[in-house]
Amino acid sequence: MRIICLVAAATILVAAGGIAFADGSGDPAAVKSEDGKYLDKEGNPTYKIQADGTVDWYTYSGYRRYHSECHVCHGPDGMGSSYAPALKDSLKTMSYGDFLAVVASGRKNVTTSQENVMPAFGDNPNVACYLDDIYVYLRARADDALGRVRPAKHDEKSKAYTDAEKSCMGH
Amino acid sequence: MRKVLLATGMSAMAVFAAGSATANDELNKMSQNPAEWVMPTGDYANTRYSKLKQITAANVGKLQVAWTFSTGVLRGHEGGPLIIGNTMYVHTPFPNKVYALDLSNESKIIWSYEPKQDPNVIPVMCCDTVNRGLAYADGKIFLHQADDKLVALNAKDGKVEWTAVNGDPSKGQTGTSAPMVVKDKVLVGTSGGEFGVQCSMTAYNIKDGKQAWKAYSEGPDDQILVDPEKTTALGKPVGKDSSLKTWEGDQWKIGGGCTWGWLAYDPSLNLVYYGSGNPSTWNPKQRPGDNKWSMTIFARNPDNGMAKWVYQMTPHDEWDYDGVNEMILTDQSIDGKPRKLLTHFDRNGLGYTLDRADGELLVAQKYDPKVNWTSGVDMNKNSPTYGRPKVLDEYSTDKQGEDHNNKGICPAALGSKDEQPAAYSPDTQLFYVPTNHVCMDYEPFKVSYTAGQPYVGATLSMYPPPGETHMGNFIAWDGKTGKIVWSNKEQFSVWSGALATAGGVVFYGTLEGYLKAVDAKTGKELYKFKTPSGIIGNVTTYEHAGKQYIAVLSGVGGWAGIGLAAGLTDPTAGLGAVGGYAALTNYTALGGALTVFALPQQ
Question: Which terminal CB of chain B, N or C, has fewer other CB atoms within 10 Å?
């Protein structure tokens, strides 16, 4: 079921290349929203940051999930560590579909000079249930739409989100 | 000169050899000889003190690089080499290579060993693929591999003599710690506190690798090897089910309490000492109770693993303050009375001194003035909260609850000190402690457990204490009174193990890559040299052909390589001085190298 979603996302992505944004998924401008989730014109999840700094729920939630599950390798604020890439930079060229695929299935980059391995998180609900959240947060970081700070203000969690979270996490 | 020392060593030996004729009398004898460095901790007491005194406070300024050696591995290099006779044994992080170097022959490689390990173990190692070193006994080199296998190599040719499977990396159990040989056994801990592992200390027979005993940090009495009547905590029997009673349901099965720090051993008391790490998860709301015996100092009988005494420093952890740091065993007088002491600098920011025979708590004081989560430990023996730290509500991540961001907690999760071991000089009776000077915001939230997957449950952000410009201190500490004697500021956390010497010099490394020498009495900097990469290794000394050498591994990484690589926060965010937020990447890059120093030829 989760795999099917990933494939669908990847196909949507094909159309997105070649735009003058340092964003692997193209123009991040939000064109519509569904229950607090913002989508760009290609239908990829994106962030919405208001003039007063208020961020959408996904960006805020992604900040939290990133700093629990991802930062022990990828460093604070997506800045990278001594052994894992800065996702703030990776997402400048990586598409939404590729992001989902790598997080779900993992990646190995073992050569004579480095041994970098990312595990598959597809079966880890703490990550898999929050893929879009983490993606949206990192997309905002890659676009420099959000600095190296904890978002001070954020939209409330929607009911639809709460229900989906409960069913995904199983509690 | 050496003969005299050996003779002294042997008489000391005779005292405890009486208890059991053992396979490693050789090791006991060797550890008395300052020309060698036969165990990762230097000696069983973990003092990291050497009687060598060719290099002194007066001449250390002339120190030069004698030779260097590239390990061929990048990533974080913790620990330090062993020196056995004319051979130096150098270890590396994953893939855990071992090199035997011939000190009598221009450090030529006698043999090298590289295990075949599944690279899938890499991402289940929290905080880099570090390894803290090798152990030696009975002609064997013991290597604790990343995949939690313990391997005995023939010290002469590097051939595998036996392999013991200590844990299952697919469940998140990994190996980072250095083993310690005690009598006819080799003891080894395990890592995996961020993966919900029920962690243990395990002893294997050095002869054949057969498991002798395994003592879990939490669980039923027969698994944690305590005697409800005879094992004590702060002088009282622990009672039945001392661990089980402090967990909800069977949460102890994924309870953490990992044992990835250093071991110490007192031959006269026949006790080994080590600490256990954080309870899993980092969300304290999800695991009500004291979570015993996580965050605990254990004193165990090395023959059968039975605990003599335990002391839980941080009941019901709310900040990831692992209790695994080294236990340093000293004989000093307190109030005019000679005592057998154990001193421990905990992640929670408190420096503890206990009586190591019975676990009586003597001193518990902050060794970084910024520590703020507690107002101190209750030292009143008649109080119902005797021995417990008083937690301030505003810094209690449990009281503040899930989804609440607790700001300004000091120290940060990496502790006022992590695994980087302190040193003790009997000449000055001071401890030399490498410390972190970092605070944090901590927000716990609900997580699900999946075997082999991270089980964290908190969001953290770390930064130097508000208004400060530095993230580390190198301090001298009086363990008898619990007071800082002197303190040197360091721009970054000091993540390198210290060395104290009879020459009145103390050595340590810095994250920028400096090896530094300071005066043991005053802390005055006497020498520094920038090595190829940041130092998270421990400084070692040895003597060869009449010359004293200082050796240290460079290779930035470990936990320090995560937060500090890119700088902790945005220097423009305005929270403090720019210097305190500098990126380590502006100072150093990856690289595994051993640098060996000596005085120039006369």
Answer: C
